[in-house]
Amino acid sequence: MSNKIRIATTSLAGCFGCHMSFLDIDERLTKFAEIVEFDRSPLTDIEHCGECDIGLIEGGVCNSENVHVLREFRRKCKILVAVGACAINGGVPALRNFIPLEECLGESYLDGIGVENPQIPGDVELPLLLDKVRPVHEIVKIDYFMPGCPPSGDVFWKVLTDLLEGREPSLPYDLIHYD
Ligand code: SF4
pLDDT (tens digit, 9 = 90+) per residue, 39-73? Predict the structure, then answer.
């Protein structure tokens, strides 16, 4: 059994920009790879999150599948971190919260410019949309938050090295931003 720190990451209603920013830790990735291994993440083929030390959640919660994945991460990860504006407050996807869901679906699939063969997708395999896009802390307990859209590579590095070295994560003022 490996004694590396096990990390899982996922994107719910997000754009993967936070994941891209994670890679901005650049050459520090090599050092990181010596002490951590990835469970479910875009880097692996793992479909369900296993027992992990740290879970990183990008994106808010917009549908039933997001709720399921988020709850699984909460069950399996000792520490759960909300990464980026979408996870923390819904971000850009939550702009739809100001418009009735029926109107959003109509604009996207029935009445919008360029729509051909108008019909709202209804396959049973599709996850059900929630009426509103929710921040992750409204669904499960979140231990730490990484602000930013996206958080910079330096924010990832600071929070993760704090956690890996057993410290309470803290960000210096110049790393805290919400844009
Ligand atoms: Fe994308 Fe920004 Fe949301 Fe991250 S916080 S998923 S970069 S929109």
Answer: 999 989 899 999 999 999 999 999 999 999 999 99
Mutate to test the pocket of ligand 1, among 21, 83, 86 (most ligand atoms within 8 A of CB): 86
Residue boundaries of the structural domains of the chain = 5-97+131-176
**Angle (nearest 5°) at CA 170 between 166 and 171:** 140
Residues flanking ligand 1, CB < 6 Å:
14-15, 17-18, 58-59, 84-86, 91-92, 149-150
Q: Indicate the pTM of the whole model.
A: 0.94
5-97+131-176 is classed in which CATH architecture? 3-Layer(aba) Sandwich (3.40)
Q: What angle do CA 56, 61, 67 make, to 5 degrees?
A: 85
Q: Name the DSSP class of 141.
A: -
